[in-house]
Amino acid sequence: MQAKGTYEESDITARLSKDLPTWRYEGGQLRRTYGTHGFKASVMVANAVAHLAEAAWHHPDITISFGKVEVAIESHDVGGITDRDFELAAKIEQVIMWQPGKEGGALTGTPENESIARYIKYNA
Ligand SMILES: C[C@H](O)[C@H](O)[C@H]1CNC2=NC(N)=NC(=O)C2=N1
């Protein structure tokens, strides 16, 4: 018996494949691991995710490591995956993977060939 508003595993994996192919469904949560250059970078990514979570009032588990950050989301109140999880995951992906230098605007984005600037591993 599924809790109200939750998705079946087959629906979850189909929606991730379509809308969030860099995310996976594991351990009952939507999960994404972001590669980073070091620990300070991981803390900054975690802080950005934490801001989005608080603004959304929907909170993931965030694991901060040297060189990576894992984000894991589920809807605790219903014990499953709901639209809230997909919507927060999509916003996190949009924000963390934002590379303005690829948008043709005035912002250059983080220089990828300068070691002092290395931050997120966009192709990890
Ligand atoms: C009281 C309860 O914690 C709040 O309503 C919010 C806070 N953030 C939350 N985050 C998540 N992931 N699931 C929830 O059910 C949830 N509930």
From TrEMBL:
Family matches, as CDD domains: PCD_DCoH
GO biological process: tetrahydrobiopterin biosynthetic process
One Pfam assignment: Pterin_4a
InterPro entries assigned to the protein according to its UniProt record, in alphabetical order: PCD_sf (IPR036428), Pterin_deHydtase (IPR001533)
Enzymatic class: lyase
Keywords of the record: Lyase
Catalytic activity reported: (4aS,6R)-4a-hydroxy-L-erythro-5,6,7,8-tetrahydrobiopterin = (6R)-L-erythro-6,7-dihydrobiopterin + H2O
Enzyme Commission number, as recorded: 4.2.1.96
Matches recorded under NCBIfam families: PRK00823.1-2
Family assignment from sequence similarity: Belongs to the pterin-4-alpha-carbinolamine dehydratase family.
Record protein name field: 4a-hydroxytetrahydrobiopterin dehydratase
Source organism (scientific name): Dichotomicrobium thermohalophilum
Classification of source organism: Bacteria, Pseudomonadati, Pseudomonadota, Alphaproteobacteria, Hyphomicrobiales
